[in-house]
Amino acid sequence: MKGILTVISGFSGSGKGTIIKELLSKYDYALSISATTRSPREGEIDGVHYHFLTQEDFENMIEKSELIEWAKYVDNYYGTPKAFVEKQLDEGKDVILEIEVQGGMLVKEKFPEALLIFVTPPSAEVLRERLVGRGTESEEVIDKRIAMAYTESDSMNNYDYIVVNDTLDEAVNNVHNIISMQHLRADKSGGIINNIQMQLEEMKRGIQNE
Fold first, then answer.
1. I want to staple 101 with a disulfide (CB 3.0 to 4.6 A). Which of 45, 155, 168, 179 is the partner?
2. Which residues contact 85 (CB under 8 A, 6 or more apart)?
3. Residues 29-75: pLDDT tens digits?
4. Overall number of domains in the chain
């Protein structure tokens, strides 16, 4: 059975990265590591948190069609390398993509069966408090992220599920349960459907022959 491709998006400061970190520590998900041209934050490691690329290298990947999607967000490129994702899905592994709204919409175009989850804090005030609390960005950058969040909010209705990240454990459980339920969808259950149909057909023939 092919794996579930899950896009997790959310406002910067919504806590989506923390949710994903918890999911990976508790469950057997594969995380697609995005490529970006932004500078690493303190503690971030190349190839673990992101593939940190120059603008030239990133644009070369675009030209070679080596990305599932890419977008520019607050003056930096972000994108999803294609080869890793396709390999994991074919092996039956559930893959999580942490990407921005623009990228999420592009993934949905290329993978209509993809599951889209949007993470939001309980209020705009909490969002700003979290951005300020990180202590990693200037007031100017924070204002840009708030403005971007306003724009991104227009796309929330395009997502399959909205998860409010008020209590971390509850948000993690909600995301995991949503992904797990996708395996029970009828269009993901072709094997069991075919088996039941074949067994019922044999039973029907046996009844007719009695």
1. 155
2. 5, 32, 68, 95, 97
3. 999 888 999 999 889 999 888 999 999 999 999 999 999 988 888 78
4. 1
**Quick check: is 208 in a domain?**
no
What residues make up the domain containing 47?
5-188
In this structure, what is the dihedral angle of CA atoms 204, 205, 206, 210, given to the nearest 10 degrees? Answer: 110
- pTM as predicted: 0.78
> Does 205 reside within a domain?
no
For residue 76, what is the domain's CATH number?
Answer: 3.40.50.300
Q: What amino acid is encoded at 25 in this protein?
A: S
- First CA to last CA across the chain, in angstroms? 37
Phi, psi of 139 (to 5 degrees): -60, -35
d(Cα 64, Cα 179) in Å, to the nearest integer?
Answer: 32
